[in-house]
């Protein structure tokens, strides 16, 4: 029989610390769904998703019941839609989005990602039509998430696309102003976007992937926070060093990851489709006690944003990877700690008190996943400034060979300090002030490309 | 295949018990198939299965044990098995569940959980309990193969937990293997 102390440690993790599998995401290749016209393509897309994912949600629920571990989100990611709809105009892309939305509803998944394009080097006419379709496509659909890869370490940053994207983000927020600009929360801009990330809004089924694949996002900031609380309580703060803390994070992540992999592999076995990767990200939710910010506080900063926040986050992010990589057969996706402002109650509080500013948040994204995520900014911030904020975040990813992303929400009609709430997993936060608004227009007006960086002489 | 016997031995714990017991079986040219031993609060207990020649009787085995002359006496029960079986091919339960129940210590806790299992057709394969302060912890390995629906058991357990004031968790054994062992599945 298994050892009692191991059993009790696991029971503690599952029961008291709300361990769950955050997302099981089925990746579906749609390249073979192309028909002669928009209508036929939409029909084939719906048919393929309907076939591939017919038993997906029921199987996840069944495995989740067997093991007593909740699978919080069941999602689908598809081939970046700009490839599927090559040659379509903006209306065609809106039709595709509506078809994807119907397919997602029919199979009962929470969200579908992949209304996406990859334009890191240049834009085709189709890509421009796709970008033009984004606001309407997201406003008219319920479950669709969009993302665009606009930069990479190999190709540099496409500044022509970036200039368009600032305005797209504004338009998205404006067209969904009745919901506080919620549309912008479903659109994320990437540098080095991975093709196997199970987390939304940035999940896609990359062109390098097989026909069908299953990726799992484990999470558990709450589990790690409680494990650290317990360690500090048991051993006493004065008897611990940061290396002990890092070790505890590693051990806990190991167990969390193993549970995720077990569930994921079981679901993929039952469905008879290939298991892809476990994404080791620490993804907070607005629920109290499920926060990355709280871990930073436990580790010694009174408020998130105080000096030391970046160093702690670096250690946390690294320890999570070390524990998880040993635990899993295949790791991929984003695999790092997320700091999405609206989705993390402690971060949102730090924004409200003025402790956490945009510049510090940007610095923190240098050492973790996934970038300036779910950051509500005043609706009055102009498109060029938004493009420029995104450009800074893209540069961090490009130079450091990592994935970075930006999901900024310019909340229409609201100013810094006012609250915005989207409810559920999307959370709530006071609006973050943006300094130096309107002072980057000459930079954005250049267009062209920021060339790919050197991959040697790294200092 | 000879005569299969099951033996149960209990004694105050001391060094040398295993050598004494297995020595008796060896002297009688018995083939030891499987055993399980445990020590609780300084008391030793062991259950063994061995195969002997057809000429050996349970009484011979008991007599062998009685010749041991230690400072502590061994309490021994020996029985010939009703249906002999090949241990190496013995059926193992395909998948088991682990039930943990924790709460304030009081009398009847194990009885009640045992009764719950009995009423739901659950076989207890292994059971370990610990008392730490006033907290009593029970860990049971269960065979649910005769249970129609694990869901129903979970629902009943929720009711049982409320009624008994215990924190009760039922998990599939795979979860514990995954989190505590590094063999890849």
Question: Which SSEs are present, and which pair or pack?
Answer:
The complex is a heterodimer of chains A (459) and B (185).
Chain A: H1 4-16, E1 21-28, H2 38-52, H3 56-67, E2 71-78, H4 81-84, H5 90-107, E3 111-118, H6 125-139, E4 144-152, E5 156-158, H7 159-175, E6 187-191, E7 212-218, H8 221-235, H9 242-271, E8 275-279, H10 292-298, H11 309-327, H12 345-352, H13 358-364, E9 371-378, H14 383-400, E10 404-411, E11 419-421, E12 428-430, H15 441-445, E13 449-450
Parallel strand pairs in A: 1-2, 2-3, 3-4, 4-6, 7-8, 9-10
Antiparallel strand pairs in A: 1-7, 4-5, 5-13, 6-10, 11-12
Helix pairs in contact in A: 2-5, 3-9, 5-6, 6-7, 7-14, 8-9, 8-10, 9-11
Chain B: E1 3-12, H1 17-27, E2 31-40, E3 43-52, H2 58-66, E4 75-80, E5 97-104, H3 109-119, E6 123-132, E7 135-143, H4 150-164, E8 167-172, H5 173-180
Antiparallel strand pairs in B: 1-3, 1-4, 2-3, 5-7, 5-8, 6-7
Give a written overview of the molecule.
The complex is a heterodimer of chains A (459) and B (185). Chain A has 15 helices and 13 strands. Chain A has 459 residues and is an alpha/beta fold. Chain A has 2 domains: 27-191, Anaerobic Ribonucleotide-triphosphate Reductase Large Chain (Alpha-Beta Barrel), CATH 3.20.70; 220-450, Anaerobic Ribonucleotide-triphosphate Reductase Large Chain. In chain A, strands 1, 2, 3, 4, 5, 6, 7, 8, 9, 10 and 13 form an 11-stranded mixed β-sheet that branches. In chain A, α3 crosses α9. With 185 residues, chain B is α+β, with helices and mostly antiparallel strands. Chain B has 2 domains: 3-87, ACT domain (Alpha-Beta Plaits); 97-180, Alpha-Beta Plaits. Chain B is built from 5 helices and 8 strands; from the N terminus they run βαββαββαββαβα. Chain B has helices at 17-27, 58-66, 109-119, 150-164, 173-180, and strands at 3-12, 31-40, 43-52, 75-80, 97-104, 123-132, 135-143, 167-172. Chain B has a 4-stranded antiparallel β-sheet, with helices on one face. In chain B, strands 6-7-5-8 form a 4-stranded antiparallel β-sheet. Chain B is globular. The chains are: A alpha/beta (459), B alpha+beta (185). Chains A and B meet through α1, α3 and α9 of A and β6, β7, α4, β8 and α5 of B.
